[in-house]
User: Fold these one by one.
Assistant:
Number 1:
Amino acid sequence: MNHPSISKVQAEIEAVFGAVVGELGDTFSVDDLLSFIRQYRRRPLYFRVLRTPPEWDNLEWMGACFAAADQDVLIVCAELGDLLFYSTLGHESAHLLSNHVKTLNSTVAQFLRHPDELVPHLHLSEYDKPQDEQEFVAEELGILFTECLMRHACLMPDVPREFYEND
Amino acid sequence: MSIFAFGRLISLLAVALTMTYIGYRTYLMRDDPSPSRSIIIMMFVGAAFEILPCINAYQEALELPMPKWQNVLGYPMFSSAILLGYFTLKQFLNNQVSPLRDILGHRIFLITAALIGIEATILSLRQGSTSFTDGVYFEPSWSYTAACSIYYLIFVGVGSLIVGLFWKDLKRYKANLAYRVRRLVSMLGLIVVVAATLLGEVNLALSFLLDDPKLRFTLNWIVQDVGKTLACLLLLIGFGVPQSIFIKAVRPLERYLEHRHYAKLYYLCQKISPLLPRLSVPQHDQNIWRVLIRLAEMRDYLGTNSPYTAVLPPRAEADYLFGLINNGARFDKLGPYKPSLSPKDYYEFLQHNLRVADHLKQLEARHRPLSSSMIEDHLAQT
């Protein structure tokens, strides 16, 4: 990270996380988070768990997000374990919620027809450590979201939950 | 009040409290259209079926007279409670509502219901009242033996099936510690039920073979008073304690485990990090999620450079990592392989890493080079 202003970054993280937790609480599902992103950004969201397209074979990616002309897009690589799936989803959600994505001219359908053209516009989740402020924010928010998503994934099944937690 | 009456009063109170709690839950769900409501109602009925047998046992300990109908109904009702309990818990734990038709047509239901029917018929045909719970009373007649034997057999058989349900469920949902402890307590309660009733069956056989009233009294006391009271208390804790209390009770253990897990996982991160120059050790801030995520990334990265096609057992993986570390291996780009070093499930992933860390520590300790002071100590000793 290139010496970001700590207080500014911290404030951004707190603002976004506060907005999510204020609406969804500290335990939420993937669907809850995606619905919140739609509502927060006031745009439709295209979410897909995707096998690596052949055109991306040399690309190091676990997830990606961008704002197409018609809707936001969040894709997560298939074949990730639970933890990487949630952390990647959290990381990419953080980019969308922090408005780190620029709106592009092409639609989702156009991009999906030519995945290679998409690469320069993507916010990719890679293995490297964060290199700039935006990545740092997404990384930190991604960890916070992972905790909330995992907490939901580890909840009791529905029937016992309704019985024990329905006050 | 005698110690027997006191134990039986405790059982009665535990059952009454469980029934009240489940009744309260049923009331809260009165407007809930979800299908799980029917499971909760079944659970309430099951708990209600236990009240009369507990009252009977308590009255018996106080040597109070009991009408015949109360005596005849008590034991079959208790047997019905465990049968109802099996189907309720099966649905409850499997998170799946079964239609009543399926339950009534189930083999276990039909067999147990037939046995309960035989038990009730024998008891109603007998002259006077019958007791399986009184420590001194024993009658070497076929009707007494058959009814008592069936009564215990139902508890042993259906109870074992319920323990099996809990065991399967414990293996399935591992990550939620509070829920895990709750089910363990409930399962322990049922194990006590099965063990106690099995002892009751043995006691019946011994009464025939030895007819030693002292031995019969002692065994009966273990079965009816110690076993039943303990089981009722455990089941009360398992089913009747609100989840918020359970979570609070388990929190210190959870914190302790998290602290220990963090230390092990961070150690593993530190060990793997030199192999992967692009992935640094995360910030040391006690955030277990940060370490877990980085470890998952490291394993995926390393996995693309490892030719293994399946997750290695922890010991083998520790050996593999130890070899790489000692050989000074470095992987600065993704390899050609499909990563398969990590279990996909979160809980399995956590446990796997903890075991690998343990084995790696052992390997390090075994192969640690001797320091000069250790060599001096060794020489002095020899």
Note: Strands of chain A lie at 45-50, 63-67, 72-77, 123-125.
Number 2:
Amino acid sequence: MPSDLVSSPTVRSRPRFAAWSDPTVTLLAVLVVIAVIVFAALTPARFLSGDTVRAIAFQMPELGILSLAMMVPLMSGGLNLAIISTANLSALVMAGVLTNLIHPTSPPWVIVAAILAALLCGMLTCLVIGFLTGVIVAFFGVHPILVTLGTMTLVKGVAVLATSGTVIGGFPPAILFLGNGSVLGIPASMILFVLCAVVVAMMVAHTPFGVSVRLIGSNEKATRYSGVATEWVLVGVYVVSSLLCWVAALVMMARFNSASAGYAESYLLITILAAVLGGIDPFGGFGRVFGLFLSLVLLQVISTGFNLLGFSPYLTAAIWGATMIIAILIAVVRDRWIARIWPAKVK
Amino acid sequence: MLSQLRAAWRRHDVQIGSIVVIMAAFFSALSPAFLTLSNLGDLLENYSVMAIMAAGLFVVLISGGIDISFEAIAAVSQFFVAIILVKFGGNWFTAFGLAGLFGALLGIVNALLIYYLGAISVIVTISTMTFYFSILMFMTQGRSIYDLPSWFTSDMSWLSIPFPVMVAAVALLVTLVLLSRSPVGRQIYGLGGNPEAAKRMGCNILGLQCLAYGYSGFMAAIGGIVQAHRVEEVVPYALIGRELDVLAAVVLGGASLSGGIGTVSGTVLGILLLAVLQNGLTLLGVSSYAFGVVTGAVILVSVTATAYASKRQQRRGVRDAV
């Protein structure tokens, strides 16, 4: 009946900040509040301090930007296992350009030119990797896990071959500022992360590209038949993911004042965990940057809180793993309850 | 005859097998050291642990899931057994038995979580990997065990076949029998091919998943014991981080990530491909720093070619149907 279509519940005016109506976002917000209250009660006067907030703000951007790089392919129903190796290779390229062009006696304009050249080379590296990954995924129809498994090995191989496994370090202060400096008390890296998050959120929610990405994640064939050039959208997905790796590379090299083929490798699987905890559907199609942001805050609150309690970092990682399972468990129990109270709501 | 040959050529394990043979011929032509008994023995021994773990992971892939936690399970079981062996002593039977039991239990935990939470296997096994490994590091504080009993670390061989290679051969044989000669194995293929159909056929989905993930945990633990025997020490973080290498080898062998497709012979050939490649490059004096580039390129070319071929075959099928 046509009248059914008109009064369909999906055609309703959405609230201004739609994220709050998302059950995952509500769940995460509640979990963050509970975690903050528990830690504040356990370590009075120490947890609720400016130092804690600052520590969280310095630790979050690295994992955060990498998680954004993982989130975009996840939304399209894919995965990018090469994010860490891409970020490391890009950081190495930038480090190579900087250390070769800048000498202790260089005048300021040489330093500026070298930084610009380094940024450009690092970005080009990521562009090429992302473009090739996207082309193989989109035009040859290879499963993204397989492609990025290959690019991960290949890109890391190039980085290891070029450096023989050594570390390149020693950057100008302008780069280091990105990792350790603050503007008005806010860490520069945090500003960079929030900028990236806002750009990705806008892109996913409000641009034709973002809508296409989510549609592909829901049903690729239907999207193609409705006239979307799905191949080129997929290429775009992996290019965006790689460009986010470039920003992550900048933050990483600034924080460590060095670049290497082997940094941050333990983050790879954690980024998937953070994204899925943040409500990104691992089959693609659904998810919000705000949910990812909350899940990162939750993970950092947990690690900072346990750190203050004097727990080993290994135990914190174990609790991160358990958090994921508990979050899925809560969601399952919640859905059963909803089904029991409003049976009509679920089919 | 010609059509038979052509049909055989379309099989993935025949293709990858011929690549392995060509590569082996190439390396033995360039380096006289390649085709010697000691080199081939080393080659097989170096990849035996990977083969044992790949056998377990392969069963999970066939069932339509994926297991990321097996290296963590191997590390945990290895440590658990090493502590018991050092404290109370034992023999090979208790070492393998305890490790297998412990590994299977941890694997079944994965299966239960996946089944009852209705969650995707990648996510659950990444979570449990993080959990198992972090607990291990917390308990051990990263300390290694060096004082393993001498019967455990001494080299053994039978008809000059090294012990790890024998274990790997048995593991692969058992997997072959389980998957293609037992009713349960066919059900696992069915579950991976079409879970809904398998459910309506009356397969016990929970039981099959427990078997697949339990088997993966079991094989990972056995692999962990063999690895400890080879390197004569137990280092808690020695195995972790290699799960994607094993996955790459299994996938090179033609196992599909969406389940239901793949052969044990393909898995063996996938591992042999990586083994012959790295061994040959070493003999030719290529720096070990170049391995990553070559391995990555081989994975990319292989998966792209496979996908391209199946896409073309599909298109041909559509054309024939029209």
Note: Chain A touches chain B through 46 residues (CB under 8 Å).
